[in-house]
């Protein structure tokens, strides 16, 4: 079964709706982002699916925060319609394959293709 990578990518929003970074869906209700991204929201996190739809609230409890590794796990209030978890793999197995890079640059400009 083929999964579009875009269905597992979220924009991380703060309370004011400003973009703070990117998160990736691991399971139906668990996503991962960088600790510094989640911290910038004041731990009041909303996730907007890259493919559209209403943002969903997410929680990041202290035990899900790992500043030393710059990783934070986010527990979604529910799985948005159309969202699908992404398959994880090892970087060493990715050589010679096509790739897609998705993110939300701080200055808002998008470069590349």
* Helix percent band: under 10%
Shape call:
globular
Number of helices: 1
User: What can be said about the biggest beta sheet?
Assistant: 6 strands, antiparallel, barrel
Topology, number of strands: 7
CATH class of the domain at 8-81: Mainly Beta
| CATH topology grouping of the domain at 8-81 | Thrombin, subunit H
- Please identify which CATH superfamily of the domain at 8-81 we are dealing with: Trypsin-like serine proteases
Computed CA radius of gyration, to the nearest angstrom? 14 Å
Strand content: 25-35%
Low-pLDDT regions: none
The helix/strand order is EEEHEEEE
In what order do the strands lie side by side in the largest sheet?
1-2-3-7-5-4
Residue-averaged pLDDT:
86
CATH architecture type of the domain at 8-81: Beta Barrel
Return the structural class.
mainly beta
How far apart are the termini? 25 Å
Gist?
The chain contains one helix and seven strands, in the order βββαββββ. Helices cover 5% and strands 31% of the residues.
What does this structure look like?
- This protein has one helix spanning 35-40, and strands spanning 9-13, 19-27, 30-33, 45-49, 56-59, 65-66, 71-76.
- It is mainly beta and 113 residues long.
- Strands 1-2-3-7-5-4 form a 6-stranded antiparallel barrel.
- Strand 6 (65-66) and strand 7 (71-76) form a beta hairpin.
- The radius of gyration is 14 Å and the shape is globular.
- The model has no long low-confidence stretch (mean pLDDT 86).
